[in-house]
Design a protein that fits this description.
Blueprint lengths: L6 E6 L3 H16 L3 E8 L4 E2 L2 E2 H8 L15 E4 L2 H5 L4 E4 L6 H8 L8 E4 L4 E4 L3 E4 H9 L3 E5 L4 H5 L4 E6 L3 H11 L4 E6 L2 H23 L4 H22 L11 H13 L1 H12 L3 H9 L6 H14 L7 H10 L7 H7 L2 H4 L9
Parallel strand pairs: 1-2, 1-6, 2-5, 6-7, 7-10, 11-12
Antiparallel strand pairs: 3-4, 8-9, 10-11
The structure holds 1,4-dihydronicotinamide adenine dinucleotide and 1,3-dihydroxyacetonephosphate.
Pathway: Lipid metabolism; Phospholipid metabolism; alpha-glycerophosphate cycle
Organism: Henosepilachna vigintioctopunctata
Keywords: Cytoplasm, NAD, Oxidoreductase
Length: about 350
């Protein structure tokens, strides 16, 4: 294999989506002179039938646990030490379940190139002391002191792995960097739109996972597509309101990109959060138990995101302004019953008040 001296890319994460992105980036860098052919991929090490997952990936070029049946390009190198994987990278693509990001950032602090840039594909938030939440891209920026852009979209990993057409959204305020990131990511079947409203892009990606839990609850209750459409619409209204209230300056048009309404729809029909939430209603098992039983090591982001959002809404006395977000959290924790979700959408403030004019453009 020939190695050039272009920019080096490291994928920080190797789950279901991380492995698909490694496949895409590994193929793209081989076609573009400005990138180094070698792509490193940080793999949280585990044993599969007595063999290290990193060894399996490097020998068979397949992540047999998180993306079975799909070959990764041979220039993607699995590395169990995140510092070793990231130390020479110019572009760090973060794609881990969001609960692990802080630990990874503290391990990487001071160990990466100061000139590196980051792209976060992570959907979720983190709690801030004092009752707020923080965006994952802001955590990466604050901890590692490098700029962090985002990519979110209607991108169920297995469909992208099968090369079924879809779109995605990159949120990046720097035009040149946005174009470079698009070059690394875009393929014939995976089309990228770059927008500058990065925070809204990221917030859409995080919040739609909460709504998808609601969609799963109504599926579990045996309600139909009309009910699910109501959950999607009311969930979208809460997402828009959330940005308007807590991140003013966001653009309404961003909700019409792939990261907004499109991701909301696909996740409410085909995602893991929907699937486990349906099973939660039908089996009465806990969310944690269902995650372990149904996802083979993959992680749910919706219930923890609901908890993070609830933590903030409660501290601000605003739980009743976002009833879907609040009720999903209370159902996941057993405080309310799944049947209560129907009252939540029936009594939703969108039905009671004339919707106010949305002030952002
Ligand atoms: N899977 C999908 O269809 C999509 C996922 N995303 C987002 O991408 C992010 C990553 O998702 P996936 O790649 O699907 O991950 P996943 O859900 O497959 O999670 C499993 C990954 O977490 C790793 N892991 C487990 N314990 C860990 C620890 N203590 N420290 C570090 N890593 C650990 C596992 O080794 C594995 O790589 C999430 O925020 C998700 O919402 C975004 C778009 C699509
Ligand atoms: O984010 C996703 C699709 O864009 C995946 O959603 P789930 O985590 O619910 O599978």
């Amino acid at each position: 294999m020939s190695y050039t001296k272009g920019k080096q890319v490291c994928i920080v994460g190797s789950g279901n989506w991380g492995s698909v992105i490694a496949k895409i980036v590994g193929c793209n860098v081989q076609k573009l002179d400005k990138f180094d052919n070698r792509v490193t991929m940080y793999v949280y090490e585990e044993m599969i039938n007595g063999k290290k997952l990193t060894e399996i990936i490097n020998e068979q070029h397949e992540n047999v646990k998180y993306l079975p049946g799909h070959k990764l390009p041979a220039n993607v190198e699995a590395i169990a030490d995140v510092v070793e994987a990231a130390k020479d990278a110019d572009i760090l693509i973060f794609v881990l379940p969001h609960q692990f990001i802080k630990g990874i950032c503290s391990t990487l602090l001071g160990k990466i190139k100061p000139t590196a840039i980051a792209l976060s594909l992570i959907k979720g938030f983190d709690r801030l002391e004092g009752g707020g939440i923080e965006l994952i891209s802001h955590i990466i920026h604050r901890h590692l002191k490098i700029p962090c852009h985002v990519l979110m979209g209607a991108n169920l990993a297995n469909e992208v792995a099968n090369e079924q057409f879809c779109e995605t959204t990159i949120g990046c305020r720097d035009r040149k960097i946005g174009a470079m990131l698009r070059d690394i990511i875009q393929t014939e079947y995976f089309r990228v739109v770059v927008v500058d409203d990065a925070d809204t892009v990221e917030i859409c990606g995080a919040l739609k996972n909460i709504v998808a839990c609601g969609a799963g609850f109504v599926d579990g209750l045996g309600l139909g597509d009309n009910t699910k459409a109501a959950v999607i619409r009311l969930g979208l209204m809460e997402m828009i309101k959330f940005v308007d209230v807590f991140y003013p300056g966001g653009k309404l048009s961003t909700f019409f990109e792939s990261c907004g309404v499109a991701d909301l729809i696909t996740t409410c029909f085909g995602g893991r959060n929907r699937k486990c939430s349906e099973a939660f209603v039908k089996t009465g098992k806990s969310i944690k138990q269902l995650e372990d039983e149904l996802l083979n090591g993959q992680k749910l982001q919706g219930p923890i995101t609901a908890e993070e959002v609830h933590f903030m809404l409660k501290s601000k006395g605003m739980e009743d302004k976002f009833p879907i977000f609040t009720t999903v959290h209370k159902i996941c924790t057993g405080e309310l019953k799944p049947q209560d979700f129907v009252s939540c959408i029936r009594e939703h403030p969108e039905h009671i008040y004339i919707p106010r004019h949305i002030a952002f453009t």
